[in-house]
Design a protein that fits this description.
It is built from four helices and nine strands. By secondary structure, the chain is of the alpha/beta class. The C terminus is likely disordered.
Length: 227
């Protein structure tokens, strides 16, 4: 199983958030925003895994942490589907670990930035339409023209993108969101965009916290502490 940075916001966490970083970063990349998000007092376990180290062709074959290889600046061309599937397997292994610790899939939120968002999206929408606690996809996309089979899911989705993103163009992110909307209406899907590049901004962090808090509070309202 992948090594991870783990943070808990209280004892006996009832929910887990598995958050995947982008190309060349590591699990520490998003750990610092946890205190900045307006979350309700529900115990959470944040898991920030480190992607495997591999050679990435777009960066001259240099070894770095990556969820899959990238060959071309145009991310919609020649996607590394095998690498993506392999990383989905890593995420599912992390999720099984949390389930073995007593947190069901319905209380596991997946989150990912850029490459990490690709893997989070494929984990939820690319394999059987299971229900997860939520899906947060930041500055990301899917290679929707590569023939990847997608399945509808009741998982709540929030996609966020920068209008000036030079790495993952806004249009590619929007095209992905529209493809997911066409799958059906099982889950609530929301799109937000901000005046920013390939990054995360403070208003976005606040919106993420509010979205996540809404999911957590909904669980409380539906039944409080469930077995």
């Amino acid at each position: 199983m992948l090594e991870s940075v783990t943070l808990e916001t209280g004892p006996d966490p009832r929910w887990a958030v598995i958050w995947l970083h982008g190309l060349g970063a590591d699990g520490h990349d998003f750990a610092g925003i946890v205190p900045e998000m307006p979350l309700p007092p529900v115990p959470l376990r944040f898991v920030f895994p480190h992607a495997p180290v591999m050679r990435v062709r777009i960066n001259g074959g240099a070894p770095m942490r990556a969820w899959y290889d990238v060959a071309l600046p145009d991310l919609s061309r020649s996607p590394d589907l095998e690498g993506m599937r392999r990383s989905v397997g890593h995420v599912r292994e992390l999720a099984r670990h949390e389930m073995n610790r007593g947190i069901p899939r319905e209380r596991i939120i997946l989150a990912g930035f850029s490459q990490g968002g690709v893997i989070a999206l494929l984990t939820v929408f690319g394999d059987g339409g299971e229900r997860w606690g939520g899906l947060l996809a930041l500055s990301t996309y899917l290679p929707v023209d590569a023939g990847i089979p997608l399945s509808d899911s009741p998982t709540p989705l929030l996609m966020v993108h920068g209008t000036e993103d030079p790495v993952v163009p806004l249009g590619l992110g929007r095209k992905t969101f529209e493809a997911l909307e066409r799958l059906g209406g099982k889950g609530v899907r929301e799109w937000q965009q901000y005046l920013m590049g390939h990054s995360v901004c403070l208003p976005e962090i606040g919106a993420i916290g509010e979205w996540m808090g809404g999911i957590l509070e909904g669980d409380e309202e539906e039944g409080g502490r469930r077995p």
